[in-house]
Design goal:
Blueprint lengths: L1 E7 L3 H12 L4 E5 L12 E3 H6 L9 E5 L1 E5 L5 E5 L5 E4 L1 H14 L3 E4 L3 E5 L4 E4 L4 E9 L21 E10 L7 E6 L9 E8 L2 E9 L9 H12 L5 E11 L8 E3 L6 E4 L15 H13 L4 H24 L4 H19 L3 H10 L4
Parallel strand pairs: 1-2, 1-11, 2-8, 5-13, 11-18
Antiparallel strand pairs: 3-7, 4-7, 5-6, 9-10, 10-11, 12-15, 12-16, 13-14, 14-15, 17-18
Length: 369
């Protein structure tokens, strides 16, 4: 059976693409190697605005908590508190969100095959070999396979180097003695987040996502990501806590792809890359949920117009993502971070006396949320 669209990858970008292309009447197939599309690997935080722009306004069904307060801590312990009443961080129940999206995709007519891995891909003939040996044909393919970029790699997308790859790990845990009305970012420190940051994100009802992440090239030799999180927990979480769920993953930490859309030589078939496969990540805070949902939406809406997808993506995201990456590359060392915190706190301290609300809102903007 031929399809209009075949989507490889059933996480946020892939599900978003499936919902929107099927909603336009396309014959769509989504394949994913996982048996359970409720599985996830991230900190579960996304800004309210990015969710709404992507077509998924926050719902009590899958948002557990809304946070306006942010605490940023430098490697030496300098603290910068911020509050932006216009920018709410939504803590998600990713499992519920993804299963909700899966139901929406199916309701709109998208065929979904789980436990199926995408194999050899040929853009020129418009065929994708599935792991079971069955080839499927389509006019458009959407690669939403994360940093692996399984289809894109077969069309010349380079593998991410260790300097362009962040490794993140997280425990969801029950703990006491932690603030439940703010999300906290601990930047730098070769001890638990080299070239990155660690975090404490409250989820409500005594639950917290506690994690650490950094550049793969700066990770201490012989130390697993799990150990970095354990170090952070020992340093920052009072008492033993109760560990409930561990996840680890990779994120792109590089500029977005210059060509997120490709066409066959005869122009009959196209490949669109979305989410982490297109390297769409806010590098300064290793955040990609909003980018995944939005790029998936644009890929689904423009499945039959690859040039338009690329143009819309670049116009809507690239300036911010490039700026975030330049900012990230300028503060890789603990010394760089410490200097930034010192200058920011000093300048904001002066302005805070005159314009307290404005200063606190700009502190959130500083990170590129």
């Amino acid at each position: 059976m031929g399809y209009d669209v075949v989507i490889a990858g059933g996480s946020l970008a892939g599900l978003s693409a499936a919902i929107h292309c099927a909603g336009k009447g396309a014959r769509a197939l989504l394949v994913d190697p996982k048996a359970d599309l409720g599985m996830f690997k991230c900190a579960e935080g996304a800004m309210e605005g990015s969710l709404s722009r992507a077509g998924f306004p926050p719902s009590p069904e899958w948002v557990t908590l809304g946070l306006y307060k942010l605490r940023m801590v430098s490697p030496a312990g300098r603290v910068l508190d911020a509050r932006n009443r216009y920018k709410k961080l939504c803590m998600l129940d990713r499992t519920k969100l993804q299963l909700k999206m899966l139901g929406m995709a199916k309701d709109r007519g998208c065929e979904v095959r789980t436990g199926v891995r995408a194999g050899r891909f040929d853009l020129e003939s418009g065929t994708l070999q599935l792991a079971g040996g069955e080839p499927v044909g389509a006019r458009t393919f959407i690669d939403a396979t994360g940093t692996a970029a399984a289809l894109g790699r077969q069309c010349g997308v380079p593998r991410l180097s260790r300097d362009c790859l962040a490794i993140v790990a997280q425990w969801t845990m029950r703990a006491t003695g932690l603030e439940e009305d703010s999300y906290q970012l601990y930047f730098g420190s070769t001890h638990h987040s080299p070239g990155g940051y660690s975090w404490i994100f409250p989820k409500g009802k005594g639950l917290f996502n506690v994690g650490a992440g950094g550049l793969a090239s700066r990770m201490p030799k012989g130390i697993l990501p799990r150990e970095l999180v354990e170090r952070f927990i020992r340093d920052r979480v009072p008492g033993p806590g109760k560990r409930l769920r561990f996840v680890a993953s990779f994120l792109p930490c590089c500029p977005p792809l210059e060509r997120p859309a490709m066409k066959s030589a005869d122009g009959r078939h196209s490949l669109l890359l979305a989410g982490d496969a297109a390297r769409l990540c806010v590098a300064s805070v290793q955040a990609g949920i909003g980018s995944a949902l939005q790029s998936g939406r644009w890929a689904g809406e423009n499945w039959d117009a690859p040039e338009k997808y690329q143009a819309v993506l670049k116009e809507g995201m690239y300036r911010r993502l490039h700026a975030s990456h330049r900012f990230k590359m300028g503060i890789l060392s603990d010394g760089d971070l410490e200097g930034l915190f010192r200058r920011t706190i000093r300048s904001m301290g002066i302005l805070h006396k005159l314009f307290p609300a404005w200063v606190e809102e700009r502190a959130v903007d500083l990170l590129g949320f």
